[in-house]
Structures are given as structure tokens and as C-alpha cells.
Specification:
The protein has one domain: GroES chaperonin (10 Kd Chaperonin, Protein Cpn10, Chain O, Roll). It contains one helix and eight strands; from the N terminus they run αββββββββ. The protein has one helix at 2-11, and strands at 19-24, 47-53, 57-58, 64-65, 74-77, 83-87, 90-96, 100-103. The strands form two sheets. A six-stranded antiparallel β-sheet has the order 6-7-1-2-5-8. A hairpin with a 5-residue loop joins strand 3 (57-58) and strand 4. It is elongated. The two termini are 14 Å apart.
Length: 104
């Protein structure tokens, strides 16, 4: 968890509202049978670590509901969710909390 907070401070990404910044897990480079996969054949993992979270949902009456995930959580998300962002050498995914399917 300390690494996630350190990463968020390093990147200076602060999501707004109900948005979450994730760092996607590294794709496997071999299959279970031992076949080495080229970059073009690798699927992007649908797992990642939460780096930073926004301040929450705003209800119609103006009150805020905090997000259920927090920095450092390992999560599963939908395959086509969010926007990919590059900050320096790091790749991040910016998505809404509703695109997160589960915590691991």
C-alpha cells in the first residue's frame, strides 16, 4: 500500500469525482504450456492496483458519497473500461468506480 501512495505522489495524478487511477498488472509472457507469446498476442490484464481515488459521487441533493475502493486495493475491471494515460514512463488507466467489478 505504501508503494501505491508513493506512486500517486510521484505521478501527481488526482482523479476528480468518482474516478479512479489504476496501474494495470503486467501481462503474462508465456502460456500455461510454456509457449512464449509476442507482444501482439498478449491480452491486456483486467487486473490492477488502485493508485489514487477521487473524492466521491455527488448525489442530486449535493451530498457526497465516498468511494468504496482506496489506494493500494487490487481490483478487477471491465476489459474496455477507462482511458489509458502515459505519465513519463508509467502507464495508468483512468476509469469510473462503476467500471470496477470486484476487489481481490
Amino acid at each position: 500500500m505504501a508503494k501505491a501512495k508513493e506512486k500517486a505522489k510521484k505521478t501527481n495524478l488526482i482523479p476528480l469525482g468518482d474516478r479512479v487511477v489504476l496501474q494495470r498488472d503486467v501481462a503474462e509472457d508465456t502460456t500455461a504450456g510454456g509457449i512464449v507469446l509476442p507482444d501482439s498476442a498478449r491480452d491486456k490484464p483486467q487486473r490492477g492496483t488502485v493508485v489514487a481515488v477521487g473524492d466521491g459521487h455527488v448525489k442530486s441533493d449535493g451530498t457526497k458519497i465516498e468511494l468504496t475502493v482506496k489506494a493500494g486495493d487490487k481490483v478487477l475491471f471491465s476489459s474496455y473500461a477507462g482511458e489509458e494515460i502515459s505519465v513519463g514512463d508509467d502507464e495508468f488507466l483512468l476509469l469510473r468506480e462503476s467500471d470496477i467489478l470486484a476487489t481481490v
